[in-house]
Amino acid sequence: MIIGAFCHAAYLFAAALFCGRYLGGSAPKEAGTGSHKNGWLFFLLSFVVYLLIETANQSVSGPYILYCMLNQIVFAGLVLVLFPADRERKVLAASMLLAVRAMVTLFCESGLSCVLLFWRHLADKVSQPLLREWENALICCFSFAAAVCVLYWLSKRVAPIFFGGTEEGTGGNFPRSRKWYITVAVPLLVLVLMLDVAEWGASNGIMIRSEGGRMGLYYDQIFSHVQVCVQTLLSMCAAGFYVFGMERIVEEQRRSFHYHAQAAVYKMMAEQYQRTERLRHDMKNHIIALSGLCKDKEWEKIGHYLKRLESAGLDEDGDLTGSKVVDALLCGKRQWAKKEKIRWECDVQIPRASGISEFDLCVIFGNLLDNALEACERMSGEDRFIHMQAGMAKTYFLLEIKNSTDPTVSRGVSFDTTEKRRAGVTHKGNTIEHGIGLQNVSDVVDQYNGSMNIEVEDGIFTVAILLPRRDPART
Question: Out of 102, 156, 250, 318, which could bridge 195 as a Cys pair, Cβ 3.0 to 4.6 Å?
Fold first, then answer.
């Protein structure tokens, strides 16, 4: 028991370092003094609980799997309670730590048992060998040492899984949404449960036995340990391919979505620039034509001429937000609103200090304005409007978009969607008009640990978003 306690203490110490690294902030390097204190407390409490459970297991006979699962539940519970990160991220960290310990130790124990049994059978000429106490202790030490090494190796490579990839050209990180953490964690927990059942079976006798025991205890043990090795090896491969494969797929999808979104915005900017350049090129001729009309006092023709110039590209209400990409996006939406005779009011300022990537800003503004324009288009009457204002307030970026909507569809609805959006539920009354695109916006809000509130009252649909400022060096 002393050697087992020492081995578990070593792994718990490595787990505490892992949690301090990935559960102490929004990036690995943000784990500060508070995280180290939490790590030490986690190590001490976990070790004490392990000793208590092992003592109970030695003194009170009971199913092995019961004590094993109790130890894992307490372990995961301490991770959830002691560290300050989001609950879903802590679930993923706990599931990884449990999976590494279960898979690596079980694989090494079975593999080394096969080797030692084989050696005693050949070298010592023991026909039915059994592992001795010191051999079991040696296997335990080596197995947990291997688990610590694997955990150290993983700690250098799982940062993208916990904190997201980077946007090319900016060096910024994209934190995963809370759904991502649960999606990755659940299969790992299932594998841990499956291995617990397998280990319980091994602790209660030989799992594979020849018919009638004709091949003898030696071969039955070998076959049983080989089966466990194969099972754990396949589990490790499946877990690795799933976790890192999912991260790769999500990153590829993000890059693809990012590329198409940027391409659409830049295409809009290029079209606007070409219109302006054509107008500028013809400006001399326009001035000559207007001078002639003015000389002949053709005031009505001058008015028509100026209106044509305005529709051709002279826009006195251009949005200057501080972001060229957002300016181009708002230009297209404003022209759409103008075409549909929707009143447009815009007061948006996006300083560099906001720390929000232009891609994420396009997702937010694009989806919310698309919904607002569609809602206004479905209305009848002249009182249709879109009003937006955004800017920095101390360390927060505030955005509010209001638009007219059909008052008969929803009345007096008000709620904070932070939790509801995570569950994929929309409680907005006017779901037909505003449901599309809100999930994309909510994912961005979750990435920045922000909040989004929606209100529908007296024919006015209001979306308010609050995002904490992030370091521009990481966005």
Answer: 102
Nearest Cα neighbor of 451 from 431, 411, 413, 422 is 422
Res 401 pLDDT > 90: yes
Residue 132: Cβ within 10 Å count: 11
Place of tokens 């940062």: 159
Query: Worst-scoring range by mean pLDDT, 53-57, 237-241, 315-319, 359-363?
Result: 315-319
Start-to-end C-alpha separation, the chain: 50
Which residue type sits at 32? G
* Residue 428, number of CB atoms within 10 A of its CB: 22
Instruction: Name the burial class of residue 425, with classes exposed (0-12), middle (13-18) and buried (19+) by CB atoms within 10 angstroms of its CB.
Output: exposed
What is the number of alpha carbons within 13 Å of residue 335 lying toward its C-beta?
A: 14
**Do residues 91 and 77 touch, judged by C-beta distance below 8 A?**
no
Whether the CB-CB separation of 372 and 401 falls below 8 Å is answered with yes
pLDDT band, very low/low/confident/very high, at 226 (cuts 50, 70, 90): confident
Per-residue exposure over 386-424, b if at least 16 CB sit within 10 Å of its own CB, e if not = bbbebbeeeeebebebbbbbbeebbeeeeeebeeebbee
User: Chain-wide mean pLDDT for the chain?
Assistant: 77
- Residue the block writes with tokens 């994309």: 440
CB 19 within 8 A of CB 93: yes
Helices (H), 340-430: 358-377, 418-422
Question: Which residue type, as a one-letter code, is found at position 184?
Answer: V
455 pLDDT exceeds 70?
yes
The Cα 315–Cα 243 span in angstroms is: 50
- Cβ(222)–Cβ(116) below 8 Å: no
Residue 311, pLDDT > 60, answer yes
Q: What residue type is 415 in one-letter code?
A: F
Q: Which residues contact 287 (CB under 8 A, 6 or more apart)?
A: none
Stretch 166-174: mean pLDDT: 43
What pLDDT digit, counting tens, does each position of 69-81 carry?
888 899 999 999 9
Of the candidates 461, 463, 438, which has an alpha carbon nearest to the alpha carbon of residue 453?
463
Residue 294 pLDDT > 70, yes or no? yes
pLDDT band at 321 (very low <50, low <70, confident <90, very high): confident
Distance CA 261, CA 280 (A): 29
Tokens of 151: 């955990």
Backbone φ and ψ for 404, nearest 5 degrees, come out as: -75, 150
Question: Residue for token digits 């002691």?
Answer: 82
CA angle 475, 249, 229 (to 5 degrees): 120
